[in-house]
Amino acid sequence: MSEEFAESMKRSVAAMNEGDKEGWALEMHEEIRVMPVPGWHEPGPFSGIDDSWDFFRRIDEVFLEAGPVEIVEMISDGDRAVASVSRMVRVEGQPDEIETVVHMALLLEDGKTIENANFLDRSQALAHAGLR
Description:
The protein is α+β, with helices and mostly antiparallel strands. It has 4 helices and 7 strands, in the order H-H-E-E-H-E-E-E-E-E-H. A hairpin with a 2-residue loop joins strand 6 (98-109) and strand 7 (112-119).
């Protein structure tokens, strides 16, 4: 995995956790395109910095409480990558926190994320990114 990708991913997750749109946008290509997990109630795709940021912020509205996003795995090969992230959340009807894990298939251009396709299944993310 490229050190540059790893550091960029860490900065983008930190900015997302802090609600820092400008910091997050520095790590994204201006023409970023985000695809939600299959079956999400907003099918997407979401295009551009503003639309993509707003989509990610709306995800928090689904949960009663949502902890910070944490990177659990990163795999990259050239301009393709998969980053798996987790967070603890509380949902209506569940007494305990649950862990959510999303696997993001990423396409990089000029060192920035231009495509982010989200999956609940790791193997689907790896296949989408061409890493399997």
